[in-house]
Each structure stands twice: as C-alpha cells, then as structure tokens.
Amino acid sequence: MTAPVTHWDELPTRRAVQGPLDARWTDLGTGSVTVGAKRIQLDPGCMPTPPHCHGAEEEIFYVLAGSGLSWQDGATYEIREGDCLVHPANGAAHTLRAGDGGLDAIAFGTRVPVEAAVLPRAGVAWLGPSWTEVGGPHPWDREAAQPPLEFAPPSQRPASIVNVDDAPANDIRKQTVSRLVRYLTRDAGATRSGLRHSMVRPGMLNVPPHCHGAEEELFVVIGGDGTLLLGDDEVAVRTGSVVARPAGTGVAHAFRGGPDGMTLLMYGTREPNDICFYPRSGKVYLCGVDVIGRIEPLDYWDGEE
C-alpha cells in the first residue's frame, strides 16, 4: 500500500506577485478530494489576496508562525502564532497582512464545485442569478490598480478568531490513547468543517485506528514526529508531513507519537450521515445521531444458497 503522505518541503511552491499582493503558496491538498489546504508564507507588510468572500466555501486559517493583521470588511484584528480564524461562506470579505516578522499560515477549505456558464459570444459568465464580464485584466491586476487598502487601528477580536491556548480542551489518557486535543473551531462559527489541535504523547495513539464512510480528513504535523498507522502499514511522519484520508477507503488510520510526542492539526468535514468504523473493537459510531455500537461479521451469501 502506498501511504498518502507528502511533506511541505517537497511540494512545489509558487510565488504570486502583483503590487501589495506577494505570497508564496504551497498546495498541501495532494491526495484529498473534498477538502484542501494551502500554506501561505508572507514577507513583512505583504498580503496574499485581495479582500474576498466565498459564496459556498468555508475557510479556516491557522497561523503557524509570525504575526500580522486580519482585515474583515474594513475592521482589522491582530493575529499571532497559534491563532485560528474562521471565515464562513457568505461572510465578511477578508484578507491578511504580515507584520514585521512576516507571517506563515495554512488555509484549510472545503472544495465546492460552483457552476459558471460562459457565453463566449456575449462575453459574460452566468453565475446563478447574476453575471459577470468574461476576460479583461486579471483580478489581481484590477486589485493592484485600486487605492491602497486601508488598515484601521486593530479592534477587539471577534469570537471567530481564537488562539490555541484559549480553545476548549479535552485531555484523554487511556491504555493506548493519550492526547490533549483543543477544539479550535467549536465556538468560532464553523458549520461545514472543523479544525482540531492535538498533542499526542510519546508512544501513544491520538485515537484508535478508524475509518470514515462520509467525512474526509486532512492532517498536518506541526511539531515533533511519530508514525502514521494505515491499515497494516506504519509510515514515519515528522513536522511538515501532510496526510490525506478521503472518505470511504475502508482503511483505518491513526497516529502514534514519537519519543518527544507529536502535534497535529486535524481538519475534516462535518457530515451528518457519517459512519465511523473501529476495526480493532468492531465498533461503529453513527456520528449524526451520536450512537455507538458493536457489529458482528456479515456473510453476504448467508441464506442465499
């Protein structure tokens, strides 16, 4: 079995520059299907994108290092290492600006197919009930032609920005499972996806091996090292390793902390019809109704002969 493990140092990074927009982008979503993640590295004073909002996709940012400002519909908020920012669909227009030491962040998001019908003779694209011009200057070029974006003095941070140290926590210490997990988005307004920060203790599992029927998960190791358990395989992972686990594979996964433990970002979708299977115990968790039970092996041909 080939493990779906990549490392951010081994993935291609592209630099996009246009006026104040200057960022290095690394696509971390290799192997994922319905979710994605991009690492964004900014030099001091730089921005990654024009202010924007998504009509269908939910975005969650995690600040790996550095500091800066979050711009949201004209208000600004200070951000720093360990901060999590939630941007729901149809929410405030938003962007970032790096502080004096630069900014290093990961943007997680759902991949939502959005239909746009292009009318080439009319030169417009039909976007649901609205339409827009097709062609012309690139959106980044149009943004660069605008007056500089104004950043007001920072305001008190909203509930949609939470630092890992302030997030609700759950400390679990079992025979084989031992980790401190922090629920970064539980109270921050995310509805379609979620992000957790998990500190896995040395030699212990973060969770029992399991697989999902409907939810997709994406993991990023942001500290320490350890092992990915994937079916019958074990694969070494370290800071910067990225693991995609699409739904419906039937292959169980878990992580074991190395000698000094391991810290994971765990991103996933929220699917009310998800079923989670734990092969070691034979248990099934019906996530939408919060019920767990044990199953018996099924012989598909029993009674059919």
Structural features:
305 residues; mainly beta; Jelly Rolls; 8-stranded antiparallel sheet; 1 helix; 23 strands; 2% helix; globular
Describe this entry's structure for a reader.
The protein is mainly β and 305 residues long. It has a domain at 162-294: Jelly Rolls, CATH 2.60.120.10. Helix content is 2%, strand content 51%. The chain is built from one helix and 23 strands. It has one helix at 139-144, and strands at 5-7, 13-18, 21-27, 35-42, 59-72, 75-80, 83-87, 94-110, 117-119, 124-127, 130-133, 161-163, 169-173, 178-183, 193-200, 211-212, 217-230, 233-238, 241-245, 253-269, 275-278, 283-286, 291-294. Strands 1, 13, 14, 15, 17, 18, 19 and 20 form an eight-stranded antiparallel beta sheet that branches. Strands 2, 3, 4, 5, 6, 7, 8 and 12 form an eight-stranded antiparallel beta sheet that branches. It has a four-stranded antiparallel beta sheet with strand order 16-21-22-23, with no helix packed on it. The longest helix has 6 residues, at 139-144. The model has no long low-confidence stretch (mean pLDDT 91).
Summarize this structure briefly:
This protein has one helix and 23 strands. The relative contact order is 0.16.
